Amino acid sequence: MRINKYLNGAGVSSRREADRLIEAGKVTINGRVAKLGDQIQDGDEVAVGGKRVVPPAEHAVIAFHKPVGVIVTTDASSPDNVMEALRRSKKKLPDVRLFPVGRLDVASSGLLIFTDDTALADRLMRPDSGTEKEYIVGVNKPLTEDFLKQMREGVRILGLKTRPAKVEQSDGARFRITITEGKNRQIRRMCEALGYSVLKLVRVRVAGVELGELAEGDWRPLTAAERASLAA
């Protein structure tokens, strides 16, 4: 990580102001005066004006396999809420206030990200974030080339046309779709607009985070590479 980004992430200053501090010789790395563009490695000791800079503790980010029937809400009074489903896992959860990033409708299953990092959640849920979300979808009748073409090019739902999507047929009535937006029940509405009903919908990827072999109702911490994919 570049030194100015490190200082910004530690809450010392903006990146531009960090560069000014570095140019003024006020920043050291392991006791030596830092230079613009220096890289910070794990274990390095950074100081500004002789005072050590310690970045905040790393936020928790986990992947959860939401089962069908679980409602993505933090309202504890709601039956079948996702927080209760998460707590039913046998693993000890991070000792922070976790919340789900985005939604996944009650009839769908698959990957759901949880974190205590509000900035990360806000960035991922912005309509213009461009975060890829990949799903495996099973429908009620054989797919046609016209259906696949329209799903790729965009379908008018809720008064708007959806963005272009990546769509690959898996077999006669099943396909993979990757979207970069998250309208309410988007894939189900797209299929319905084209005369199809969704029988099964599983989210298998968000950015560089894959569901993989994670069992329903279980969770795991993200790897460093997966966390980086969310921050990109």
Describe the secondary-structure layout.
Layout: H1 3-9, H2 15-23, E1 27-29, E2 32-33, E3 46-48, E4 51-53, E5 61-66, H3 82-87, E6 99-100, E7 109-115, H4 118-125, E8 133-139, H5 145-153, E9 156-157, E10 160-161, E11 166-171, E12 174-179, H6 186-193, E13 198-206, E14 209-210, E15 219-221, H7 224-231
Parallel strand pairs: 7-13
Antiparallel strand pairs: 1-2, 1-3, 3-4, 5-7, 5-15, 6-7, 8-12, 8-13, 9-10, 11-12, 13-14
Helix pairs in contact: 1-2
What are the main properties of this structure?
Alpha-Beta Plaits; nine-stranded mixed sheet; alpha+beta; Structural Genomics Hypothetical 15.5 Kd Protein In mrcA-pckA Intergenic Region, Chain A; 3 domains; 7 helices; 15 strands; 232 residues; 27% strand; Pseudouridine synthase
